[in-house]
Amino acid sequence: MRVPVKADFRIDTVMTMSRPARADDIDEICMALPEVELGTSWGDRPTYKVRGKGFLLYRMPHRTAVDPVTGEMYDDLLVITTPDAAEKQALVDDEGSPFFTIDHFRGYNAVLVQQSRLGEIEREELAEIITDAWATKAPKTLVRKFFEDG
């Protein structure tokens, strides 16, 4: 189940007009959420975190994630936390969605998406997915306050 995006968040950050998502939307959406900072994890991987817990990671190319057509390692992957296995599966199973998973992420509630394919979803949907990821890692009191203040 997705966490609803706050009305003022949608207006200020997503805008009322829908348009395809772009890679440069990621920073704007993440940094509009409370107590988010861009740090690193897994050594040097840029990671958006809330109170030290990562919810969106720029994944380095790795042999566990390759293009099935070319056999080349993906070089523009994002790892986005999902609230639970059901939400992960719903994103992966949606044929119109660019989200997928790999064996390496079996048992871990997160999806992968190529930055180059973000335009296959609307910016508002990306904001909702990122907000869900943030809410999964943020303290419950912070999440409650964020949605109550809207």
Task: Examine the secondary-structure arrangement and name the CATH architecture.
Answer: Alpha-Beta Complex
How many strands?
Answer: 5
Number of helices: 5
Percent in helix: 25-40%
Work out the count of structural domains. Answer: 1
Rg from Cα: 15 Å
CATH topology (fold) name:
Aspartate Aminotransferase, domain 1
Helix and strand composition category: alpha+beta
Strand content: 15-25%
> In terms of per-residue confidence, which ranges show pLDDT below 50 for 5 or more consecutive residues?
4-16
For the largest sheet, list the strands in their spatial order: 1-2-3-4-5
Mean of all residue-level pLDDT scores? 91
Biggest beta-sheet profile: 5 strands, antiparallel
Name the CATH class: Alpha Beta
Large-scale geometry: globular
Cα-to-Cα separation, first versus last residue: 20 Å
The helix-strand sequence is HHEEEEHEHH
